[in-house]
Amino acid sequence: MRSALALVACVWPLLSASASSLNGGGWDIHILERTHRPNPTRGPAELLTVHFANGRSYEVPLHRAKPIATLQGEANAALLLVSGADCTECDEGNTLRFFVLGKAELFGSGQRHLYPGTKRDYLSEQLVSKTRVFFGRCLSDDQDVVVWIHRYLGQDGNWHDGQGIARLKETGESFQRIAPGRNLLRRLNARISLGKCTELPGIDGTTEP
């Protein structure tokens, strides 16, 4: 019963640099509703329901879920970019997920994508990776994308560079690795200066055991 739940509702400021592109579909995030359902063995479980300006609501199937932005992809596909984890009683860190909007329930590929920030080895505390993430109209004006710029310490003891782009479709995200190059970061910074692209702030963490 709803009365048995501890409920918190708040207005959520949309972060997407291209939020105006979704106004026609009403996918602006309006309210976040967090409910805590008691669990006698594992403690209360927190559930997040996202209410949109068009009246649609979805429960996000993640723990520690935090909506980041609604994005527009190919053929006006609307997707929700969320951070979160699959479990609470484990050491899994937050990752980025994509969910397709407009269906009866949130639909996602289940793929976990890197959250921005630095990671250190949980035993040695040695720095092992640095990740930056950008979202919005970061490459062109016609649709949103999400871009990763990643540096990681390889088993050979050397640092390696990686870059990737997630393009958004009605069926979900399509992730593509691309050859590292400085030109991508220059393009991203140029789009940020135009207010078209946003960098997601990173957090510091450790690797999973």
Structural class: mainly beta
- The fraction of residues in strands falls at over 45%
Instruction: List low-pLDDT spans.
Output: 1-24
Query: How many distinct domains?
Result: 2
What is the helical fraction, as a range of percent?
A: under 10%
Query: What's the helix count?
Result: 1
Largest sheet, strands/sense/barrel: 7 strands, mixed
N to C succession of SSEs: EEEEEEEEEEEEEHEE
Number of strands: 15
Rg over CA atoms, rounded to whole Å, is 18 Å
User: Mean of residue pLDDT?
Assistant: 86
What characteristic shape results from the CA principal axes?
globular
Distance between the termini: 38 Å
Question: Your description of this structure?
Answer:
By secondary structure, the protein is mainly beta. It has 2 domains: 2-108; 117-201, no CATH class. The chain has 1 helix and 15 strands; from the N terminus they run βββββββββββββαββ. Strands 9, 10, 11, 12, 13, 14 and 15 form a 7-stranded mixed sheet that branches. It is globular. The relative contact order is 0.16. The model is unreliable at 1-24 (pLDDT under 50).
